């Protein structure tokens, strides 16, 4: 993340050169689309987490992408252990 003054300078520099401007526009459109898709995935994950009853996992798995936040090591280890246990029970 950049401070607004620095960001404005970058935008001015990109706008000043037609080739860089076109490249930046293309990249920003890609990033925007990816960001929108990621936000949709986060919203779907939040809906599943907030459900009061067990969801229909066949529906949830359709198009499901989870991007969890960076976790403290002890929580990550606990989740890894639970995931391994779940995978063993499914085998």
Please describe what this structure looks like.
By secondary structure, the protein is mostly helical. It is built from four helices and no strands. The protein starts with a helix and ends with a helix. It has one domain. The radius of gyration is 20 Å and the shape is elongated. It has helices spanning 4-16, 18-50, 57-61, 73-90.
Features:
91 residues
**What is the number of E strands?**
0
* SSE pattern: HHHH
**DSSP helical segment count:** 4
Work out the strand percent.
under 5%
The structure class reads mainly alpha
Q: Which consecutive residue ranges, at least 5 long each, have pLDDT under 50?
A: none
Helix content: over 70%
Topology of helices and strands:
Layout: H1 4-16, H2 18-50, H3 57-61, H4 73-90
What's the short version?
The protein is mostly helical. Helix content is 76%, strand content 0%.
